[in-house]
Amino acid sequence: MDASVAHELFSRPRRRTKVLIRWWVGGRPGACAASGGPSGAAIDRGTSGSVQQLTGQYVDAACTLRQALDLYQQLGNPLGQATALARLGHIQHLTGQDLAAEQELRQALGLYRQLGHRQGQAEALVVLGVVLHARRVYPEARDTLKQAVLLFQQLDHRLGQADALTAMAALQQAAGRPWEATESHRRALDLYRQIEEDL
Fold this sequence. Notes:
mainly alpha
């Protein structure tokens, strides 16, 4: 990735954080507010854990998301379980526990597939691809990220597509394909610029 592309992608962290927080909490007014009953408690734990993750409180986030996962299991809510597992997998990757991360993400992916939840599948595939890249399982990482890009394209989800392409570019660079990495970065950059224009 050339310097101008890198600068454009990473020079506006505040704007990117704003987009990410909207994505994690679902972009709904009052999404952070707890509802009553066990279902409300599970939602509250899940949202709190996501905010803790975004602010770098990984140990607290993992604990909070485990509580959410337990509640969702008690409620028999597979979508809640999948979301908690996917976020736990991401935290485990961020803290260097890639084998555990892979297990959590594969469980989440299986649940999302059973439910036909394509956005959840795509999001889990991106993080799984990054984890497989970190573990140097390059062919499977590439295939996983390709699936994510395709799903996000089908959903017309530009932020997800851009993030998947950015992960793909990092993998291509590591695999000794800098020309492919540059093209993936440029495609991602175009999408990030479109998103910024819409904010």
